[in-house]
Structures are given as structure tokens and as C-alpha cells.
Amino acid sequence: MKKINLVERVSCHEQVASSEFVRQLPKTELHLHLEGSLEPELMFELAERNNLDLPYASIEEVKAAYDFHNLQSFLDIYYQCADVLRTEQDFYDLTWAYLLRCHEDGIVHIEPFFDPQTHTERGIDIGIVFQGINRALLQAEQELNITSGLILCFLRHLSEEQAMECLQQAKPYLEHFIGVGLDSSELGHPPEKFTRVFSQARELGLYAVAHAGEEGPAAYIVSALDALKVDRIDHGVRCIEDEALMQRLAKEQITLTVCPLSNTRLKVFSHMSEHNILELLDQDIAVMVNADDPAFFGGYLMQNFDALIEHLDMTRLQGVKLALNSITGSFMLADQKEKHIAKLLDIASQ
Ligand code: HPA
Ligand code: ZN
Q1: Which residue CA neighbors atom 10 of ligand 1 most closely?
Q2: pLDDT at residue number 1
């Protein structure tokens, strides 16, 4: 895609952006775990509906437990919470609630993640999960004008054989997802552990993405690109530790799906004012903004943008660049991208 000179196209480009300006811009979300959008209120509702006991007495108690010191301390609670998801209706309700939030935030397209192994390990059929999620995604296309492409993530703390088995189980549902990803505990589980399963997925015509360089080193970003041949990197903020990698990411315009609130809640950065997203953006790296696990990290997409405005003085130009990167970095078809970009430039120039 031809590079657009945004300085000429964005009015008052050096001004700090307003939240309302960013909300109106067409945006995509490419790094969102559906299980991570399970709000405590819905968790209690589903526990009651499925006759399950929760280890928490109240919503306040749940929220107090969301005090994380690293990725693993979050994942332990996140997998526990997902246990309330049992039926097709549960997966539909979870996905629909997230889509309503997307609509409020000006999101026009999403490529959300789900973790089938978290559910199949508990004896839930993968078909139930696909059907519930897809019913909501189809409804959103018709009623909210939000398009989507679902991404199936393998859990990297499990073996490659288990990931292969997961891919095998998902094969009858190939028309229901567009790509594979890699998430869960990063340290000690380098991307190359999953080389064969990613190669098989790509042979099936699926896109590939992987979490890398969140807690793990910059070398994991390199091996996600070289061994897994991913189309995008999820997080990737530790690329800043490797100058040659930074140059490669800029040259090849590889999208990094960055999640500011997640990074501060999981102590990847000690404070939002320390976050490097705008520094990467200004070095021409194709970063964009996402919520990751909004129910656990304190906010959806617009709250992530609001944090960048408040703590990093994000300008209108930077906001438009981030929104543009979210469109170009997606797996939408070229004409769909063009349509959203035209609208984006129109709003940015006003
Ligand atoms: N990192 C790794 N695995 C995850 C995350 C994350 O931020 N969220 C849900 N699973
Ligand atoms: Zn994530």
C-alpha cells in the first residue's frame, strides 16, 4: 500500500488529541482475547446459570483479586474465570457483550483471539465454542456494521503435539476462523517450539500471528518472524532492545499489536508515562493500539487511547497514524481497507 503523507492530511496535527476525536476515527482491534473480555458481572451471571460455585463472594472481591505482578499471576486467574463458560449461549453472550463495546468505541473491524484448549481440556466440544462465538460475530456484521475474522490461539505452555491435536479438532470449522496465534506463558516457551504446527496451519491457508516480546526477549520476536513466519507480532514492545530488529520491523512494516493498559497492569512498564508505543510509532514501526484482556486490565480500546492522551500527550497525528496502522495491519481485503482509510482521512482533515 502506498504511503500516505499524513502531516498534510491531519488538521492541527501537533495538537494533543481529544478522546472524542479518536473515538470517531474508524479503527480495528487485532489483539483481544475473548475470554479476557469476561466482565465480573457476566461471570457471576454465568456461574449462576450453570450452577457453579465461584471462589469469590462478590464483584468487589473479584476486582480486588485482579492485582497482578506479572503475566503468570494474571494467567492463573484468567484460566480460572474462563471455567464459567460452558454452553453455546455462554460463548455467544461473552462475544456479544464485547461487540457492543466495540460499537461504542468506533471499531469497524475485529480479529479476536480465543483459546480452544482452555475449553476442550474441560470437556467442552470445540464446535460449541465456534458456534457461540460465530453467531455473535455474524449478528454484529448485520446489526452493528462490524466485520471480523476469528483467530485460534494455541497455548504455549502446552506441547506442540497438543497444539497439533487442537488444529486437527478445528479442521471441520476452517470456514469459521482466518488464522492461528500463540499465547499464554511466554518465558521458557519460545516460538520455535511450535514451528511444525504453524507450518501446517499456513499450508491450510491460515494467517499466523504470535505473542512475542511482551515478557520474553527481542529474540522471540525474531524467531516468531523467522521460524513461525508470522504476519504480525502481538505486543513486541521489547523490540526496542535490538536495534537491528527495530530497523527490520520498520523496513518490512510488520504490525505490532500493542496493549498499553495490559503492559502497565502486568508490569512490563512501571507506569504509562514510561510506555514506548509512541517512540516506536515515531521510529516508523507499524504499532497499533489494543485492549488485550479489557475485563482484567481496566479498560477497552478507548480507555487505552485515553491513557496515551493523558500520560504521553498523544497528538492528533499520532492518533490518526495508530488508527491507520490498525486498518492496514488487519487481514481485511484491499477494497475494504481503502473504504475505511478514505473515511479516516476525511474525519482527520476536519
Ligand atoms: N499474553 C499472553 N497470553 C495471554 C495474554 C497476554 O497478554 N492474554 C491472554 N492470554
Ligand atoms: Zn494478548
Answers
A1: 184
A2: 67
